[in-house]
Amino acid sequence: RLLERIKRMESGKAFPAARVSDNLTSYPFGKSIVTGKSYDTGILDEIAAFTFVGRQRPGSEAECDSDGCKEIVRQVKECLFSWWTDLPWVRLETAKGMLSRHSEGRNATPEGGWQKLAAGIRFPRFEHVAYQQHCVLHEGFRFRDVTSLTLEAKWGSYLEDAQPGARLDELTPMWVSSETATSALRGAVQLSKSEPPLLLFHVDHGQSHMVPGMFAEKGLWETHLLDL
């Protein structure tokens, strides 16, 4: 079921994204107070600089020469955050093209392969969004604004801490956070019953009841690592 759903998402050529709010939450950073929108806009802007490597980065849609370019400019301008809005998947052939564009003329070798090549690339934070932007710019993908269903995100992905009333059942994400799964159990968030999430993330964020025995298993794993 997981592979089928990944293939369906890829064939749709759209990454779900929602606007990040400028007033739902804020955090102190040194002497400054940063909202979710201002912080996440900075991240998307940083990733766009990485995506447009080797070419003049447009400052507006009017300066773009392709629909993909306009879509990335729109994502940054509207702060459409697409990190972890569904299970992060990668087509290796596409990732190969992405790495090649950032390799500065170097090629993968049998001795080191793509891992060695990638070691010389300075990736931005939230690197899967960089993969998404590469797909938008070069592979005909787009960002699907789902804010009308999810409501504005507080900070980052709307799946991390879904807003009460979010209609995630209409998006059928392949994974959600343990916080969102808990909200669904309480009836605050709607999840699809016919195509429910197949995986949970952030299960270590105080939602241990979602995975019985989780902290006991975590303790065993930590002991094993220390023994190594």
Commentary on this structure:
The chain is an alpha/beta fold. The protein contains nine helices and seven strands; from the N terminus they run αβββααβαααβαβαβα. The strands form three sheets. Strands 4-1-5 form a three-stranded mixed β-sheet. A hairpin with a 2-residue loop joins strand 2 (26-29) and strand 3 (32-35).
Give a concise summary:
With 228 residues, the protein is α/β, with parallel strands linked by helices. It is 41% helix and 11% strand.
Indicate the topology.
Elements: H1 2-12, E1 14-19, E2 26-29, E3 32-35, H2 36-51, H3 67-78, E4 80-81, H4 92-101, H5 113-118, H6 127-138, E5 142-145, H7 147-150, E6 175-177, H8 178-185, E7 199-201, H9 214-227
Parallel strand pairs: 1-5, 6-7
Antiparallel strand pairs: 1-4, 2-3
Mean pLDDT over the full residue set: 88
Q: What's the tally of helices?
A: 9
| Envelope shape | globular
In percent terms, what proportion of residues is strand? 5-15%
**Could you tell me how far the N terminus lies from the C terminus, measured between alpha carbons in angstroms?**
36 Å
Specify the helix fraction band: 40-55%
Which tags fit this structure?
228 residues; three-stranded mixed beta sheet; two-stranded antiparallel ribbon; 9 helices; 7 strands; 41% helix; 11% strand; globular
